[in-house]
Design brief:
- The chain has 270 residues and is of the alpha+beta class.
- It has two domains: 19-110, no CATH class; 137-267, Endonuclease, Chain A (3-Layer(aba) Sandwich).
- The protein has six helices and nine strands.
- Strands 6-7-8-9 form a four-stranded mixed β-sheet, sandwiched between helices. A three-stranded antiparallel β-sheet has the order 3-4-5, covered by helices on one side.
- Helix 1 crosses helix 2 and helix 4 crosses helix 6.
């Protein structure tokens, strides 16, 4: 790999660049740092470097300030067998860290420092973008599920998680109230074909159309079978407001208390 030359002179001639231009907030979790890199690179799948021999690694951009010149330099870093190689990308000079990271990723891509990891053999995902979406759609303990469960628990409700409402039916609900016979499903927009956010695939169009449509039919069949057995079914989209979703559940289980207080966002699980 080869680095890039600076694209423009430093804009901070008389004083160092502000911390917001290059230094991230202290105390952030690894997940938050990874999400920041994902946003800047326009997707988790766009952060790959080719290690050779069919191996790939996910990279990150590191920003450093040169004290003498007051320039912000960007480096591409990754891990390889216990080592942490770095490749100089170039200089950036925006006012915010996010903008500088985004420019650095573009520079690294233009310089040919990044690669796209091919999908595994027999993989349904025909592109890194599709594969990234699939990986991001976990089947259990997603953020929308955890937030909903937290609100229901605060409201004094007790439930079971990830079980079959009907043991003989191979269908699992996300939140289940066995005594009340209420089954709650938190549906991901990608897999369940959200009418607001689902976007048709541009590759393997027939396969993905049949896949999503099959999921929709299965959802409708599940609802019908549960209702026939005396269950109340509540479906929540992952994009729904968690407080509104919790109130829907509470309205069914405790009609006399059909609302839950909106918590401070800082106390909500992330």
């Amino acid at each position: 790999m080869t680095g890039m030359a600076p694209t423009e002179p430093s804009r901070w001639k008389d004083k160092p660049p502000p911390a917001r231009a290059w230094k991230g907030r202290e105390g952030r979790s690894r997940e938050a740092l990874a999400a920041e890199q994902d946003r800047a690179a326009s997707g988790r799948h766009r952060r790959m470097v080719d290690l050779g021999d069919g191996r790939f690694a996910r990279a990150s951009i590191e920003l450093k300030v040169l004290p003498k010149t007051r320039r912000i330099r960007a480096y591409l870093r990754w891990s390889d067998k216990g080592r942490s190689p770095a490749e100089y990308v170039g200089e950036v000079a925006h006012e915010t860290r996010g903008a500088n990271l985004a420019q650095a990723w573009e520079m690294a891509r233009d310089a040919g420092l990044l690669a796209e990891e091919p999908p595994p053999e027999r993989s349904w995902a025909t592109s890194p973008a599709v594969r990234s979406v699939m990986r991001g759609n976990r089947s259990r303990d997603t953020k929308p599920e955890i937030r909903l469960r937290s609100l229901l628990h605060r409201a004094g409700l007790r439930y079971r998680v990830g079980i079959r409402p009907l043991p003989q039916l191979r269908r699992t609900a996300d939140v289940v109230f066995p005594k009340a016979r209420v089954a709650v499903f938190v549906d991901g927009c990608f897999w369940h074909g959200c009418p607001e956010h689902h976007r048709p695939a541009t590759k393997n169009i027939d396969f993905w159309r049949e896949k999503i449509e099959g999921n929709r039919k299965r959802d409708a069949e599940t609802d019908s079978l549960l209702r026939q057995a005396g269950w109340t079914v509540i479906r929540v989209w992952e994009h729904d407001d968690p407080v509104d979703a919790a109130n829907r559940v509470i309205a069914v289980l405790r009609p006399e208390r059909a609302t839950v207080e909106r918590p401070d966002l800082q106390t909500m699980p992330t």
